[in-house]
Amino acid sequence: MRRVERQHALVERLAAARGQRRTVSGLAREFGVAERTLARDVERLRDSGVPLRVVRGRGGGVSLDVAPVVAPIAFDLAEVAALMSSLTVLGPWVSPSATSAMRKLAAAVGSDGGSEAELRRARLGIERD
Questions:
Q1: Does domain 3-64 have CATH number 1.10.3210.10?
Q2: DSSP the chain
Q3: Which of 15, 18, 25, 125 is most buried as measured by Cβ atoms within 10 A of its Cβ?
Q4: For 107, how many CA atoms within 13 A lie in the half-sphere containing its CB?
Q5: Domain residues of the chain, as ranges?
Q6: Average pLDDT of every residue of the chain
Q7: Rounded to two decimals, what is the model's pTM?
Q8: CA 7 to chain centroid
């Protein structure tokens, strides 16, 4: 498993734990890597903005700071196309969260009158006549 795939899987596993701490040693065993490798993954994820909480020492571990929901954000059609394209590029590594996000984006565009043709034009940067 490549580092990016492992880090993505780590975030998914911590999200599934719903805020409960998981030990670095246990996670390292699950992913088949050294504890130091997993600790570096956690550091990189935190540096990139993933809200991980680390408690050191006895009874410590790593958890994902779970926020109930994100405040509403307004995207234009080109931004939705960019997000959907990015999620599509994940290919076989699409997570349940990515799949859910894709469905929500598609539903929002569909209910607002966005068509597949409009999404394709937005992806290609083609202006409407």
A1: no
A2: --HHHHHHHHHHHHHHTTT--B-HHHHHHHHTS-HHHHHHHHHHHHHTT--EEEE-STT-EEEE---S-PPP----HHHHHHHHHHHHHTGGG--HHHHHHHHHHHHHHHHTT--HHHHHHHHHTPPP-
A3: 15
A4: 6
A5: 3-64, 77-124
A6: 82
A7: 0.54
A8: 10
* pLDDT tens figures, 56-103: 998 889 999 876 566 778 888 888 888 888 888 876 567 777 877 888
50's CB contacts (< 8 A; 6+ apart) are: 11, 64
Q: Which residue's entry shows tokens 């959907």?
A: 84
Q: Helix, strand or coil for residue 54?
A: strand
Pairing of strands 52-55, 61-64: antiparallel
